[in-house]
Amino acid sequence: MRVQDLSIIVTGAGSGFGEGIAQRLAEEGAKVIVNDIDVTNGERVAAAIVAAGGRASFVAGDVTKSADVKALVQAALERHGKLDVMVNNAGWTHRNQPALDVSEDDFDRCYAVNVKSIYLAAVHAVPALRLNGGGSFINIASTAGVRPRPGLTWYNGSKGAVITTSKSLAAELGPDNIRVNCINPVMNPFTTLGPSFAGGELTEERLNKFRSTIPLGRFSTSLDVANAVLYLASSEAAFISGVCLEVDGARCV
């Protein structure tokens, strides 16, 4: 059990990468707080983990709201007595389209969910991690922040901000024994955001066009990302901080 008895929050865990991350961490012994704005799916994921013999509970919350993030951290402290790892997975994207066609509301939402959430997680989780003698932040960024392409300009910028912020936090929080890393997955078209990334219906033509840009010849899966999170959360990565681990089949090469 690589994360036995660690108290871990996973945001956006009601589906997609977050669901896979929460399940994998629980399989390896973690006590998981499943967070999502979607109550139905969040409760479903937590219940499935418990049914499989793992330890998990659900906390609803919007990662763009300070009070919700504060309550999320408090729930981990009340239920587990501590917080060891904060996985900031919740994310959102505007539709794939020309930069000037993206509405101001969509721009604001993109930066709130993808970037402000990291700020709020730091504000509320860092004190808990300090009390615990250290811990780990794992931020899910994207290959879009490393190898941006037209159509997702503002999303690309938000994920670039996650990457730079993660590195800066790693330098600042290192003396507190708090590690900060991020993971850059390549697109998984079969998550709820898939059609937005693709710019419309997931036709075989669209899928083949994008797949052809990945040297290993396939999209990322939830398990690919979850295994990377598991490594960074575990003691095996005790001296790893300030890095971005690309889980992308060599797309960014």
How would you name the CATH homologous superfamily? Answer: NAD(P)-binding Rossmann-like Domain
**How large, in whole angstroms, is the Cα Rg?**
17 Å
Order of helices and strands: EHEHEHEHEHEHHHE
Helix- and strand-based class? Answer: alpha/beta
CATH topology: Rossmann fold
Termini distance? 33 Å
- Please give the CATH architecture: 3-Layer(aba) Sandwich
Task: List segments where confidence is low: pLDDT < 50 over at least 5 consecutive residues.
Answer: none
Put simply, the count of helices is: 8
Please give the share of residues in helix.
40-55%
- Kindly provide the name of the CATH class: Alpha Beta
General shape: globular
What's the story with the biggest beta sheet? 7 strands, parallel
The whole-number mean of residue pLDDT values reads 96
Write down how many β-strands occur, each being a DSSP E stretch of 2 or more residues. 7
Total count of domains: 1
Give a written overview of the molecule:
It is built from eight helices and seven strands. It is of the alpha/beta class. The chain has a single domain (7-238), classed as Rossmann fold, CATH 3.40.50.720. Strands 3-2-1-4-5-6-7 form a seven-stranded parallel β-sheet, with helices on both faces. Helix 1 packs parallel to helix 2, helix 3 (66-80) packs parallel to helix 4 (104-131) and helix 4 (104-131) runs parallel beside helix 5 (153-173). It is globular and about 50 Å long. The two termini are 33 Å apart. The mean pLDDT is 96.
